[in-house]
């Protein structure tokens, strides 16, 4: 541990600037020897004003992030504004004076959600597990919300970044983001023209660089039997990639398609490497709690075997596993593999790092009017440096400060200040920590970082180990004598979780086509069309490790050092997605590694996550430093080596398919009371290998139903082949119309994927041609804007029993695209904002429509039925108002296995901002059995 140094001797120009910027007045409670002898009145006044605010917090304000407090006070107090002329809070405030916040609750409840709405808030997301309500709220109401006894803290909405690399100095790339209307029009244009790039399928640089293409040919494994899922910003142009043949069907978590297209690009990479794997997606961009929830849903709801993300939330602690890291470990414990981008925040070896961590060293320099001492970065006991200077190209960069206290239990209060060369405080973070808060401060640098430097101040408490990190910039020496101080360990958060496989980047083909900062050495290039070798260099921006942690997830002391990153994979690959051709960053490398893991599982399905990781690590090509290192981990993953190590072989995947029925008594296609039917059960092999010696046991738990014979031999089923056999199924005369006959088909064959079991629920009787209708025709219900919770209507169903068929209609007496029309079923501008779902009394949900329709207005006389020809997902804005018959996002037949009587719920949510509308009239039509 470094010793504390006292005294006021100033030996560098940088120290003089600090004294001018930070030291205002000797704290009454501090040693007078710590005070500066050189005082800049302007800086003194600014620091004093900020600390005065911190000292004067009300009980409610003490639960509010400091930036939000200052923003709120500046809006009502001219004195606050005049005292802090150049200070930027970094709070994004809308023209309506609202801002996005995360409300952390002591106890989550609907009462809290309703209170936020009553205060003028719009709900963006809720997480009961993580006790978080994310909402857009009036700045003037933040303290009122925080004053509730069930609220622990109110913070600016937790934000994140993906790990793709773009040229920050490219003014064209930095132009204003297109509106959602422009995005929708562009996607429709690309769909209609279909002049689409298919370079990812033809070029596939990572496919060759990792020897994946050759490995698939040699081992005959293609990803069959695995499900690979991604988390990123969004999949806005998913339909375009599918229309161009770049992607197959993708299982998108309901309402979680997100916005943006980095997710689409990641899915294309997964599909290039493992073309026959199933795919899934959920957004990670609706707050940290939502991200953690979606990680679990991908595993526990969608059944994903391999999950990959490319996101870092700035509030993720480097020293303790938070809610996202714990979600990662939960899915890994359940048998999933989780890959995560190591990050693009640079490393010490390449001189690109913007990271410093170490023990706080009391400089002996008092700070501010009330309390505090600045950290001394200089390890020389005879010199002091109280700033870490930023490079001139670190503008618009998030900066975070974490220290080694348990999450939610920090009693040591640290603050963060950014000062310019003239001694002005540019921005700050000085949250209150009194034993119940996170050890975390966060600022954003201004657009120009020239001459700026960071100071870490211990306001009160003990000297703690801390980490100071830039996300998109670096520390650099200055002309006025300040030296940069950097240390390894940029990788953090859930990518450094025990269960995560953290992935660094090396280029597959051409070099990154721009300097990270002017004057940097040349960027490395990759081997394409050849394969990686030990001579390969990693990307200069890839983040380094290791990662020190000090606490167990529950906050108890547990010090350990984790080797991170674990592996390296290719970036700089081509996709068909605009803006990601080529696709650089660990955002691209992580899905390449994840897809190779999918191939390993496809060729050897019984492997555990630990065994798959062992194969990847053991067979990786060692690059740069000999052995495992803190930039590239074990080295570059190679598909051919990993498949050989695991003894991969083409696996069969034989599953029973939907049976057909011929009633022996009347030749109909239905089971009937007191009759025997011939049931034909197909078995399809959709695997890579032959299903040898296949047999099926067909059983039932339905009372009185018999099956003869119980089992049948299907022989050898080649890949792509389907073989059928027949069984006699007898239904007792006592069976009621619509009663369920459940058939369980267990398929066994030679292979690691055997057996497979599929259940089918058949009904006794013929489907009725008559539908009973159950409608909502009450008062119009306003659909809240950009609110994931949406609005719901109940549709009580009685007198049906079992359902044979379902239809759902959005009604209306007269259809038009007129904004605010009162004669349509749903009036809403920009129907592409909407997600509609139907939930049965048994709690099963299908998605009717999701983010389709673009800028078109209103849904009217639209019937969602399995009998329709076209999917609603393919509609364009030109078709508004949206009428006619449509296939839903998922089959309505999935809701007919359970009794229909009970309360059904239709929910519609507007998940994007700006547009509004109302739910007016809908009808559920249910047919029974005769």
User: Alpha-carbon distance between the termini?
Assistant: 82 Å
Name the average pLDDT: 90
**Individual helix count:** 17
Percent helix range: 10-25%
Physical arrangement of strands within the biggest beta sheet = 7-8-6-9-11-22-25
- SS-based class: alpha+beta
- Rg, alpha carbons: 30 Å
Largest β-sheet summary: 7 strands, parallel
Structure summary:
With 930 residues, the protein is an alpha+beta fold. The relative contact order is 0.10.
Protein described:
It contains 17 helices and 46 strands. The model is unreliable at 1-40 and 195-202 (pLDDT under 50). The protein has 930 residues and is an alpha+beta fold. The longest helix is centred in the middle third of the chain and has 18 residues, at 586-603.
List the SSEs and their pairings.
Layout lengths: L12 H10 L18 H15 L10 H11 L1 H6 L14 E8 L4 H9 L3 E6 L4 E7 L3 H5 L4 E6 L3 E3 L17 H14 L5 H5 L1 H5 L2 H8 L7 E6 L5 H6 L6 E3 L9 H12 L4 E6 L4 H13 L5 E4 L1 E3 L9 H11 L3 E5 L13 E5 L2 E5 L6 E3 L12 E2 L8 E6 L9 E7 L5 E5 L10 E5 L8 E8 L4 E6 L29 E8 L39 E5 L5 E6 L4 E5 L14 H18 L5 H11 L19 H7 L8 E3 L3 E4 L12 E10 L5 E10 L5 E3 L2 E7 L4 E9 L9 E11 L5 E8 L3 E10 L4 E3 L7 E7 L7 E6 L15 E3 L5 E6 L5 E6 L8 E7 L16 E5 L15 E9 L6 E3 L2 E8 L1
Parallel strand pairs: 6-8, 6-9, 7-8, 9-11, 11-22, 22-25, 42-43
Antiparallel strand pairs: 1-3, 1-4, 2-3, 5-10, 12-21, 13-14, 14-20, 15-20, 16-19, 16-21, 17-18, 17-20, 23-24, 26-28, 27-28, 28-32, 29-31, 29-33, 30-32, 33-34, 35-46, 36-45, 37-44, 38-42, 38-46, 39-45, 40-41, 40-44
């Amino acid at each position: 541990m470094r010793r504390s140094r006292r005294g006021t001797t100033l030996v560098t120009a940088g120290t003089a600037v600090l004294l001018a910027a930070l030291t205002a007045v000797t704290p009454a409670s501090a040693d007078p020897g710590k005070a500066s002898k050189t005082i800049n009145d302007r800086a003194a006044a600014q620091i004093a004003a900020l600390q005065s605010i911190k000292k004067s917090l009300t009980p409610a304000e003490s639960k509010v992030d400091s930036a939000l407090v200052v923003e709120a006070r500046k809006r009502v107090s001219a004195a606050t504004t005049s005292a802090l002329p150049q200070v930027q809070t970094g709070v994004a405030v809308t023209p309506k004076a609202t801002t996005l916040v995360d409300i952390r609750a002591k106890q989550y409840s609907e009462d809290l959600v309703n209170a936020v709405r009553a205060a003028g808030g719009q709900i963006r997301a809720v997480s009961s597990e993580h006790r978080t309500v994310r909402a857009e709220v009036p700045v003037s109401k933040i303290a009122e919300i925080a004053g509730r006894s069930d609220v622990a803290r109110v913070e600016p909405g937790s934000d994140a970044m993906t790990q793709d690399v773009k040229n920050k100095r490219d003014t064209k790339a930095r132009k204003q983001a297109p509106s959602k209307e422009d995005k929708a029009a562009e996607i429709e244009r690309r769909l209609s023209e279909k002049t689409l790039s298919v370079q990812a399928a033809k070029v596939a640089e990572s496919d060759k660089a990792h020897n994946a293409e050759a490995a698939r040919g040699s081992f005959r494994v293609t990803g069959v039997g695995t499900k690979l899922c991604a988390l990123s910003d969004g999949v806005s142009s998913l339909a375009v990639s599918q229309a161009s043949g770049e992607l197959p069907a993708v299982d998108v978590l309901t309402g979680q398609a997100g916005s943006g297209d980095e997710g689409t690009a990641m899915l294309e990479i997964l599909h290039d490497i493992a073309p026959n794997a199933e795919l899934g997606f959920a957004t990670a961009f609706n707050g940290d709690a939502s991200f953690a929830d979606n990680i679990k849903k991908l595993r526990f709801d969608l059944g994903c075997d391999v999950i990959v993300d490319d996101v870092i939330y700035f509030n993720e602690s480097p020293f303790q596993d938070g809610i996202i890291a714990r979600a990662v470990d939960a899915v890994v414990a359940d048998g999933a593999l989780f890959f995560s981008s190591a990050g693009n925040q640079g490393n010490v070896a390449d001189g690109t790092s913007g990271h410093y961590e170490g023990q706080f060293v009391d400089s002996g320099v008092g700070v501010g009017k009330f309390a505090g001492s600045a950290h001394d970065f200089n390890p020389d006991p005879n010199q002091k440096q109280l700033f870490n200077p930023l490079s001139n190209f670190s503008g618009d960069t998030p900066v975070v400060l974490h220290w080694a206290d348990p999450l939610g239990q920090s009693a040591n209060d640290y603050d963060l200040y950014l000062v310019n060369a003239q001694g002005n405080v540019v921005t700050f973070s000085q949250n209150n920590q009194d034993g119940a808060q996170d050890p975390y401060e966060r600022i954003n640098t201004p657009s120009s970082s020239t001459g700026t430097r960071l100071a870490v101040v211990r306001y009160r408490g003990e000297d703690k180990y801390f980490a100071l990190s830039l996300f998109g910039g670096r520390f650099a020496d200055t002309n006025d004598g300040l030296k940069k101080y950097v240390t390894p360990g940029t990788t953090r958060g859930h990518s450094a979780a025990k269960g995560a496989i953290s992935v660094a980047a090396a280029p597959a083909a051409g070099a990154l086509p721009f300097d990270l900062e002017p004057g940097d050495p040349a960027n490395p290039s990759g081997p394409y069309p050849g394969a990686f070798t030990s001579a390969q260099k990693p990307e200069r921006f890839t983040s380094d490790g290791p990662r020190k942690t000090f606490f167990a997830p529950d906050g108890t002391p547990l010090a350990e050092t984790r080797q991170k990153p674990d592996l390296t994979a290719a970036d700089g690959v081509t996709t068909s997605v605009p803006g990601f051709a080529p696709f650089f960053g660990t955002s691209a490398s992580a899905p390449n590694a994840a897809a190779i893991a999918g191939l390993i599982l496809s060729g050897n399905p019984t492997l555990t996550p630990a065994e798959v990781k062992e194969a990847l690590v053991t067979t990786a090509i060692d690059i740069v430093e000999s052995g495992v290192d803190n930039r590239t981990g074990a080295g570059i993953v190679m598909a051919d080596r990993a498949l050989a190590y695991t003894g991969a072989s083409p696996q069969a995947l034989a599953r029973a398919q939907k049976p057909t029925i011929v009633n022996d008594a009347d030749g109909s296609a239905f089971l009937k009371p007191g009759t025997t039917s011939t049931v034909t059960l197909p078995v399809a092999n959709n695997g890579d290998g032959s299903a040898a010696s296949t047999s099926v046991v067909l059983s039932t738990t339905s009372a009185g139903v018999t099956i003869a014979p119980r089992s049948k031999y299907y022989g050898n089923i080649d890949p792509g082949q389907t073989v059928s056999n027949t069984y006699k199924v007898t239904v007792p005369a006592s069976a009621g119309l619509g009663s369920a006959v459940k058939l369980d088909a267990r398929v066994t064959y030679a292979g690691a994927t055997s057996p497979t079991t599929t259940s089918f629920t058949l009904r006794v009787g013929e489907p009725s041609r008559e539908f009973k209708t159950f409608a909502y025709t009450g008062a119009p219900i306003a659909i809240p804007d950009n609110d994931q919770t949406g609005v719901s209507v109940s549709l009580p169903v009685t007198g049906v029993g079992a359902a044979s068929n379902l239809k759902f209609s959005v009604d209306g007496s007269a259809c038009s695209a007129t904004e605010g029309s009162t004669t349509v079923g749903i009036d809403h501008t920009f129907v592409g904002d909407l997600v509609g779902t139907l939930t049965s009394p048994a709690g099963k949900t299908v998605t009717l429509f999701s983010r389709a329709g673009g800028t078109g207005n209103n849904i009217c006389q639209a019937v969602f039925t399995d009998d329709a020809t076209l999917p609603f997902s393919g509609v364009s804005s030109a078709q508004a108002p949206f009428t006619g018959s449509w296939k839903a996002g998922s089959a309505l037949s999935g809701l007919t296995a359970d009794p229909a009587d009970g309360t059904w719920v239709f929910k519609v949510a507007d998940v994007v901002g700006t547009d509004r509308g109302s739910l007016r009239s809908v009808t559920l039509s249910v047919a029974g059995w005769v």
